[in-house]
C-alpha cells in the first residue's frame, strides 16, 4: 500500500511529513510523486497528449473537513482501480497542522497569503506553507502542454449558512474571458451561484488563475464541520462532477449558476468597526435599500437599491482586513 503503515492519504498526511515516504511510487496504472507534506501528484502511465491537468485542493482552512474527505475518497478509488484516472492530477491538502488540530488557522488565514502576500507575514506558519504550495502549483502547471486544459478547484466549506448553499468564486480575471463551459460544468455539480471578483486577491485560486493561467475557482460547498460529523451525501454533486472529469467522461452540464459581482469590500479600519447585521446572518442575504450595513468612525457603508447582498461578513477580523463583501447581481 502506498501510504503504509497508514490507511490512506489523509491519515498519512495528518500523521507524518513528506520525508516518511519515498519520493515516488509506481502503481499498475499510474505513478505517484510526493512534492511535500500533503502534496501528491498522480500521472497515468498512458496519458493522452491533450489530457486535462487538474489541481484539486482542500483543507486550506483546517476546520473545513468535508472537502478533504471527498478528495481522500476520490484518491482511494483511483488507487483501488475503481476510478480510472485520465488526467494529470495534483492533490493538495493545504494545512495539515490546522486540520489535525481542527483550527481554521494557527497564526494567519492562509487564503490571504497567496500571490506573494506570504512575504508580508514571514513569522506566520501559514506563510511558509503558502509559499511551498505556490511553488508546487507553479511547477505542476509549468509542464502543461499547449492545448491542454489547466483547471484548479479549491474546495471549501463556510462557517455560516448561505441562501445559496453551494456557490463558486471566480478570481479577478484581468484580461482573461470567463469560461462558459466551466460555468455550465459547475452548474452540473449543483453550484447555485457564481461570484465574479472585481479585484486581485491573495487567494490560492487567484494565484493559479493569474500566475499559472489556470481556469480556477474557489468552491464553497456547505457548512464547516469537524471530521466524522459531515454528511457527505450533501457533497454528491461535486464528487460526481469531479469523478467524471478525472475519468474524462461526458460531463453533466446545467444552466449557468446565478451570476453576481463583488461591488466593494467592507474594510475594518479600527476596533470601532460595527457591523449592523445579526451574528448568524447568512451569506447572500439581501440588504434593504438605505440600510447602514456597517460603520467605523466617520466611515459608513450604506446599502443602495435593495438588490445588494452580503458575503463573508466577519467583524472579528483584525483592523485593516476585509470584514465582508457587498455584492450585486450581474444583469443578464
UniProtKB/TrEMBL annotation:
Q: In which pathway does it act?
A: Amino-acid degradation; L-arginine degradation via AST pathway; L-glutamate and succinate from L-arginine: step 5/5
Which reactions are catalysed by this chain? N-succinyl-L-glutamate + H2O = L-glutamate + succinate
Any one GO MF annotation of this record: zinc ion binding
Q: Which residues form the Succinylglutamate desuccinylase/Aspartoacylase catalytic domain?
A: 53-245
Please, one GO biological process term? L-arginine catabolic process to succinate
> Which residues are annotated as active site?
220
Q: How is the cofactor bound?
A: Binds 1 zinc ion per subunit.
Pfam families reported for this sequence: AstE_AspA_cat (PF24827), AstE_AspA_hybrid (PF04952)
Q: Which SUPFAM superfamilies match?
A: Zn-dependent exopeptidases (SSF53187)
Q: Does the keyword Hydrolase apply?
A: yes
State the top-level EC class: hydrolase
| Required cofactor(s) | Zn(2+)
Q: Which domain of life is it from?
A: Bacteria
Q: Which residues form a coiled coil?
A: none
Q: Which InterPro entries match?
A: AspA/AstE_fam (IPR050178), AstE_AspA_cat (IPR055438), Aste_AspA_hybrid_dom (IPR007036), SuccinylGlu_desuccinylase (IPR016681)
Enzyme Commission (EC) number: 3.5.1.96
Q: Where does Zn(2+) bind?
A: 61, 64, 156
Q: Where is the AstE/AspA barrel-sandwich hybrid domain?
A: 259-329
Q: What does this protein do?
A: Transforms N(2)-succinylglutamate into succinate and glutamate.
NCBIfam families associated with the record: arg_catab_astE, PRK05324.1
Q: What is this protein identified as?
A: Succinylglutamate desuccinylase
Q: Which gene encodes it?
A: astE
Amino acid at each position: 500500500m502506498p501510504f503504509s503503515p497508514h490507511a490512506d492519504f489523509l491519515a498519512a498526511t495528518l500523521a507524518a511529513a513528506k520525508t516518511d515516504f519515498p519520493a515516488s511510487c509506481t502503481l499498475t496504472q499510474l505513478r505517484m510523486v510526493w512534492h511535500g507534506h500533503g502534496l501528491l501528484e498522480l500521472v497515468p502511465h498512458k496519458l493522452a497528449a491533450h489530457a486535462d491537468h487538474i489541481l484539486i485542493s482542500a483543507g486550506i482552512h483546517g476546520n473545513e473537513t468535508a472537502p478533504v474527505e471527498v478528495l481522500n475518497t476520490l484518491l482511494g478509488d483511483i488507487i483501488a482501480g475503481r476510478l480510472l484516472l485520465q488526467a494529470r492530477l495534483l492533490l493538495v491538502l493545504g494545512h495539515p497542522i490546522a486540520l489535525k488540530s481542527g483550527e481554521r488557522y494557527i497564526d494567519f488565514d492562509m487564503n490571504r497569503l497567496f500571490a506573494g502576500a506570504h512575504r508580508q507575514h514571514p513569522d506566520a506558519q501559514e506563510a511558509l506553507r503558502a509559499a511551498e504550495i505556490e511553488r508546487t502549483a507553479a511547477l505542476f502547471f509549468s509542464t502543461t502542454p499547449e492545448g491542454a486544459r489547466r483547471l484548479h478547484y479549491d474546495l471549501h466549506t463556510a462557517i455560516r449558512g448561505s441562501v445559496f448553499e453551494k456557490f463558486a468564486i471566480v478570481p479577478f480575471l484581468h484580461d482573461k474571458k470567463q469560461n462558459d463551459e466551466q460555468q455550465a460544468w459547475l452548474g452540473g455539480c449543483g453550484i447555485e451561484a457564481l461570484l465574479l471578483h472585481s479585484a486581485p486577491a491573495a487567494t490560492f485560486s487567484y494565484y493559479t488563475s493569474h500566475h499559472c493561467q489556470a481556469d480556477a475557482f474557489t468552491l464553497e460547498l456547505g457548512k464547516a464541520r469537524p471530521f466524522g460529523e459531515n454528511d457527505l451525501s450533501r457533497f454528491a454533486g461535486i464528487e460526481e462532477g469531479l469523478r467524471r472529469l478525472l475519468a474524462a467522461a461526458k460531463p453533466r452540464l446545467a444552466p449557468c449558476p446565478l451570476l453576481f459581482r463583488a461591488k466593494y469590500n467592507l474594510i475594518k479600519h479600527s476596533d470601532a468597526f460595527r457591523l449592523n447585521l445579526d451574528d448568524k446572518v447568512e451569506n447572500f442575504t439581501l440588504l434593504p435599500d438605505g440600510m447602514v450595513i456597517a460603520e467605523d468612525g466617520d466611515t459608513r457603508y450604506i446599502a443602495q437599491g435593495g438588490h445588494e447582498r452580503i458575503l463573508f461578513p466577519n467583524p472579528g477580523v483584525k483592523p485593516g482586513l476585509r470584514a465582508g463583501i457587498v455584492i450585486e447581481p450581474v444583469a443578464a
